[in-house]
Amino acid sequence: MSTTAIGNPLKKVLRKRMKTEVIPSISADSIVAQSKAIYHKVIASEAFRKAQDVSIYLSTSNEVDTLGLLRELFYQQKNVFVPTYNGRLMEMVRVKDWTDYEGLPLTKWNIKQPNVNDGRENALTNGRGIDLFLMPGVAFTLSGGRMGHGMGYYDGYLKRHFDTYLTKRPTLMALAFREQIVDEATLPLEPHDVPLTAVITA
Question: Which residue among 2, 82, 104, 193 is least enclosed by CB atoms within 10 Å?
Answer without folding.
Answer: 2
